[in-house]
From TrEMBL:
<dbReference type="GO" id="GO:0009279">
    <property type="term" value="C:cell outer membrane"/>
</dbReference>
<dbReference type="GO" id="GO:0015288">
    <property type="term" value="F:porin activity"/>
</dbReference>
<keyword id="KW-0732">Signal</keyword>
<dbReference type="Pfam" id="PF13609">
    <property type="entry name" value="Porin_4"/>
</dbReference>
<keyword id="KW-0812">Transmembrane</keyword>
<keyword id="KW-1134">Transmembrane beta strand</keyword>
<feature type="domain" description="Porin">
    <location>
        <begin position="31"/>
        <end position="507"/>
    </location>
</feature>
<keyword id="KW-0626">Porin</keyword>
<dbReference type="InterPro" id="IPR023614">
    <property type="entry name" value="Porin_dom_sf"/>
</dbReference>
<dbReference type="InterPro" id="IPR033900">
    <property type="entry name" value="Gram_neg_porin_domain"/>
</dbReference>
<keyword id="KW-0813">Transport</keyword>
<dbReference type="GO" id="GO:0046930">
    <property type="term" value="C:pore complex"/>
</dbReference>
<feature type="signal peptide">
    <location>
        <begin position="1"/>
        <end position="37"/>
    </location>
</feature>
<dbReference type="InterPro" id="IPR050298">
    <property type="entry name" value="Gram-neg_bact_OMP"/>
</dbReference>
<keyword id="KW-0472">Membrane</keyword>
<dbReference type="GO" id="GO:0006811">
    <property type="term" value="P:monoatomic ion transport"/>
</dbReference>
<keyword id="KW-0406">Ion transport</keyword>
Amino acid sequence: MVIAFRHAITGELHMLKKWIVASLAVALMIASITAQADTASPADPQAAQPAPAAPSTPAACSSTQEFFATDCPLTWHGITLYGAYDVGFGWVSHGMPTNGHNYEGESLVNRNGNRSRYLIEPNNLQQTGVGIRAKEKIVEGWTVVFNASTGFNPQSFEMANLAATNTVNNGRARQNYSFAGDGARAGQAFNDEIYGGISSTDFGTLTFGRQRALGTDVMLQYDPAGGAYAFSFIGYNGLMAGGGDTQDTRWDNAVKYRLTYGPFHVGAMYKFTDGQGGCYSASSTWTAATCTQEGTHNQAYGLDVGGTYNKFSADFVYQHVDQAISVVNPLLGPESLTQPYQSTLNSINTNPITGANVISPANTEYGIVTNNSAIMGTAKYTWDAFKFFVGYEHIRQMNPNNPLGVGATAQGGYRLSGVEDNNLDSPKIVQVWWTGVKYALGSKTDITVSYYHELQNDFRIPTTCSVAAGFRSSCGGTLNEVSLYVDHHFTKRFDAYAGVAYSDVSGGLAIAIPHGPGVPYYHDNNLAPTIGARFIF
């Protein structure tokens, strides 16, 4: 943590200290207010009576008063409506203008963040969205299950769409970007999940459709911050949950199987190929007429094995994705023809197309394609009011065996007018560690402290990486994030929170553009205090 903070300027450290003290003061104040309400007197006869056993299926809300006073589900004829609204206000030391398509806020250090800003911050603890789920019995022990959910920006009410944050910036000069990022939510009608299947009390659950990857499921369980965009690197970035690329945190056309047997559980998942592979020519001066169609080979598969013993639980996940796509920056255009960043070379081997474009570059992205394999181990332990979390993931990325070409499709059906399939000089190894603790201060308040560390190897050939030689994105590097936040539940559905996150990057991870001599981040750190509120139904 000392290393993580050494680059912060004096003013940022002063701001961080003020937010930490303020957050702890709020926590202690809330504790004093709620302590009497949370602790029953020994003389109270109700305190000595055991609580009634909880029903296996929560009863549906029977009145508006019950809806606001409890966490009863909104269920009608076996169909349940659910969702959340989460919005806040914050300050970032190095950010960009807001973008209505963005659903993650700007808490993490960003390659293009250029100055301090006050921002309306979306989805700090949870993605704002709505969904429906159903579970209908067909015969004894067997049910049909269904789930459909989507997310949106709580300020603009636009569908969550990180792909559009890139396309709306296409052609702009770097210093004029609004927020731009990459993610699996790309404007789809159901950008979270939509699947159906069958479930058995003895044989497990089998579902098919668009579903969260196994890594995403486990991340949400074993991240001390629960995937909170404002306070969690692994929730915000998606690298770990997607097994190497954030676009793979959700898989389309995927079958998922889960089975629980006593204290043990297993999960398996497979994604079928879909979309378009685009076209490619090996010629150094190729045209649209000489472009050969490529096939899609973007299948993916994963396995999860875990268990629970007393107050300890652990999971191990393996995931493999072919033709994984990562979008780095918006495309060049009229404002940026001479800017030393993001190439738009339209080929697998970075040779330029001559003559007419294969596809129009309008509303398209630039993608780096790899084959990814990842293995992750996680654990958590509950001790009195404390919950301890720890996790590690090892990711290996290689150039794809089956390349994609110009016109290939990414998440949300967006097409690539620029593709790189040979971006890696040698295998790229990314390792991610995280740990943290959540403390329950009474029954209504949680205090969470988290630390995340990403380490990238030097996969550059020749291996010339130093300050004097100049870093590139293929050089080794690190990213650190530390966060602290307090979350107080006024009711089962409504809570408010306050906290702060600090992150920094170094080496190859501090290079903003992966082409030619390294173009660094505008700033290699970011301080982001945030306050906000959430309503869940």
